[in-house]
Amino acid sequence: MKERMKRFAEDSYDDLDDNIGIVMPILTECDVDEDFTEGIEKVGKEIPILPLRNMVLFPGVAMPVIVGRPKSMRLIKEAVSKKALIGVVCQKEMNTEDPGFDDLYTTGVIADIVRVLEMPDGSTTVILQGKKRFSLDSLKDTEPYLKGRISLLEDKMPDKTDREFEALISTIKDLTVKMLGALNEPPRDLIFSIKNNRNVLYLINFSCSNIPSGAAEKQELLLIGDLKDRAYRLLFILNREYQLVELKASIQMKTHEDINQQQKEYFLQQQIKTIQEELGGNINELEIRELREKAFKKRWPASVAEIFEKEVRKLERLHPQSPDFSIQTQYVQTIINLPWNEYSKDNFNLSHAQKVLDRDHYGLEKVKERIIEHLAVLKLKGDMKSPIICLYGPPGVGKTSLGKSIAEALHRKYVRISLGGLHDEAEIRGHRRTYIGAMGGRIIQNIQKAGTSNPVFILDEIDKVTNDFKGDPASALLEVLDPEQNSTFHDNYLDIDYDLSKVMFIATANNLNTISQPLLDRMELIEVSGYILEEKVEIAARHLVPKQLEAHGLSKGKVKLPKKTLQVIIESYTRESGVRELDKKIAKIMRKLARKVASDEAIPSQIKPEDLHEYLGQIEYSRDKYQGNEYAGVVTGLAWTAVGGEILFVESSLSRGKGSKLTLTGNLGDVMKESAMLALEYIHAHASLFDINEDLFENWNVHIHVPEGAIPKDGPSAGVTMVTSLVSAFTQRKVKKNLAMTGEITLRGKVLPVGGIKEKILAAKRAGIKELILCKENQKDIEEIKAEYVKGLTFHYVEDIRQVIDLALLKEKVENPLF
Question: Is 364 left (phi over 0), alpha (psi -120 to 50) or beta?
């Protein structure tokens, strides 16, 4: 065995690299039953100890070691001269120059010095072969080299008939070969020797030496005395390390493939470039040339032209495959596509504008008059620096379509953005170009879409703008809508001031309460109130029916809806201030007619009121009707809702009890509850004025109810109604017939004005009310309403609640009074 090792070393030492700290173990030929412990009986209790850096020797394994420390050199020379065996242990820290007992692992291997080689660079390499494991008990001497007291350790061999162990060895062989192949290209004779070596102890120990893991883990393997357990632990480490090696190889392969792909794409791009140049020029160069030609035709300010040229030069320097190329291209195209100083010619013919408005919208006389006035001012001034129009009113009254008609009347482009639910300031001002996916704000985008710098711009649902952590869009709109600021509107993406002063902005809203005050200050408010019955009938006959006939493929005149039928639809199937729901009901009728036509069924020439049940089903709404004055404490009030005005009944009743108890029902809001408490306190304080017995407050409980409890109700408008209801209940006096009222009260009994007067009056007319009680200050609102709206109504204007009681309550009591 020793002679074979010497020959192998003589043939192989030229391959050693003396500059590395870890040297590959040498594989030798071993017989099946070869004993590596030959000569071990000569070893005494004390032997020389050779510490190794970051290397672990195993029994049977031959390993070249570069020796450099003086103590180690002295040990090697003396051991060679005496032909003695030495103890080899691994030190815990690689950088320790003079290790002591605590610096060494306590499990090592008895080794034989097979050969000492003097290398060309002057260093010495020693080939050691492991014999047997030992335990280092202590160090006896440190000079001239380390000497230690040891105890030999025995290896527990598995049974020769153990089939599991055989399979384990076979797996280790295969995995060792794979590992060597993954690390480098091993010699064929090495692979052959591993596969055919039948000495299991040697094979396991060789694999332990060869795994690419740290000295601590190899030392852990050396410590395991049971060969089968050592094999299992070895297999676990081999599997782990092999997976790591495969993963590294896969990463390197992918990187290599990516580099190859990039090189391939580069060569293809170069070929494309060459072909394009042969055909007349590079595509990107042609695009840039087109951009410059467009820029030459632009009538933009010199500052904008300078910025454009700077950005185009930046684009020329970018590679077409660069991610920044598309971003820069988009930015340059945004600049070039904006209509700088491009305006459509206005048509300020006021009679033409009036015709367009009358054609598209029936009624709304006050609104159309205000719009014509606005256009007249613009015609005289010659600029747009006038208040921004804000059309506000209930849904479906034609606010958005009014803007479209204005655009047509002026011969301007029409653009519209919906601000409903807008919560990000960047939607208005855009994102900065540093953001991924940055783009211009919706103002700039729509100006670009319009193609002119003076379109009619509808800001729809401006009252539904919301605020959150992303900013305050309402404040961002201030710059847009302020005539003093919007001539230099700054979009974050464009990063160039743009002139919006020639744009006609028209905002629409349903409720002014949710709009911030600074924004309201910049707008001219025009109320677009609801329609009366007669107006709705005309709108349906002139606009809605012809539109739905066309939309459903029915020829004009195919079927008629008489005005009486339209009136029944409005009264019995809709409840709104506008005509949106009415339009849907007419569409429903047309759908059923279209089905009959498509099925070759006969259809009537006109739809009569009695036919509506077939087309629209059961009546959905019954008209709000006055319910008489047979009961004490029941008074008719007027309310405003988002879909128009309505009448409501306030009912008060008394019941015997401890008194001073007020019960409120009917889904009332806080303001309405306060009005009820205020009304009761006022009556209690002024009971003598209304001939109310003081004992009633002590012995009777009060209950106020507003019917339709499922519908939320709030607001101060029912203050006078509640006082009248309570006085009627406490005095059991009748309320005047066909009378309704609205107004807020104070604790002193003063009547205050309220809003929504027009809608409330329309509701009163629908319900058959003849007389109305209003605050004196609301008289001006009545005077602004067209005479036909208030025809048949008598108005009583009051300043104090006592006037209301005198007007509303009769002297006579109801039948069967409580007291």
Answer: left
Q: Are strands 700-705 and 662-665 parallel, antiparallel or unpaired?
A: parallel
Euclidean distance between CA atoms 49 and 108, whole angstroms: 9
Query: What is the residue-wise DSSP string for 461-508?
Result: TGGG---BTTB-HHHHHHHHH-TTTGGGEE-TTT-SEE--TT-EEEEE
Element (H, E) at 70: helix 70-82
Please name which of 157, 209, 189 lies closest in space to residue 25, comparing C-alpha atoms.
209
What CA–CA distances, in Å, run from 56 to 60, 93, 129, 237? 12, 13, 12, 16
Give how far the C-alpha of residue 200 lies from the chain's centroid of Cα atoms, to the nearest Å: 64
- Compute how many other C-beta atoms are within 10 angstroms of the C-beta atom of residue 38: 12
**How does pLDDT run across 213-234, given as a tens digit for each residue?**
888 888 898 899 888 888 888 8
Amino acid at position 728, single letter = S
Closest Cα to residue 239, out of 207, 266, 280?
207
Average pLDDT over residues 247-253: 78
Catalytic residues: 717, 760
Q: What does the DSSP 8-state code read for residue 796?
A: E
**E strand or H helix that includes residue 78:** helix 70-82
pLDDT on residue 26: 55
pLDDT in tens, 34-90: 667 777 887 888 899 999 988 899 998 888 998 888 888 999 998 898 888 999 999
pLDDT of 33 reads 54
Q: How far apart are the first and last CA of the chain?
A: 133
CA–CA gap between residue 60 and residue 36 (Å, rounded) = 6
Q: What is the distance between the alpha carbons of residues 537 and 561, in angstroms, rounded to a whole number?
A: 10
pTM for the complete prediction? 0.57
93/54 Cα distance (integer angstroms): 8
- Decide if 294 contacts 342 (C-beta within 8 A): no
The DSSP output letter for 709 is T
> 41: which DSSP letter?
G
Helix (H, G, I), strand (E, B) or coil at 179: helix
At 704-759, the pLDDT tens digits run 999 876 678 788 888 999 999 999 999 999 999 889 999 999 999 999 999 888 87
Residue-level length of the chain: 819
- Can you tell me the distance from the alpha carbon of 799 to that of 76, in angstroms, rounded to the nearest whole number? 123
Query: 759 vs 515, 529, 576, 719, 804, CA distance in Å?
Result: 22, 7, 10, 18, 21
Average pLDDT over residues 379-401: 79
> Residue written as tokens 């480098």?
184
Residues 6+ apart with CB under 8 A from 536: 566, 570, 579, 582
Q: Pick the closest to residue 104 from 22, 155, 169, 49 (CA basis).
A: 49
- Residue 581 neighbours by CB under 8 Å, 6+ apart: 396, 573, 574, 575
Per DSSP, 300 falls in state: -
Where do runs of H (alpha helix) occur along 184-226? 188-196, 200-210, 215-223
Nearest of 1, 4, 103, 16 to residue 65 by alpha carbon: 16
Residues 6+ apart with CB under 8 A from 416: 400, 403, 446, 457, 458, 460
What is the rounded distance in angstroms from the CA atom of residue 675 to the CA atom of residue 148?
Answer: 104
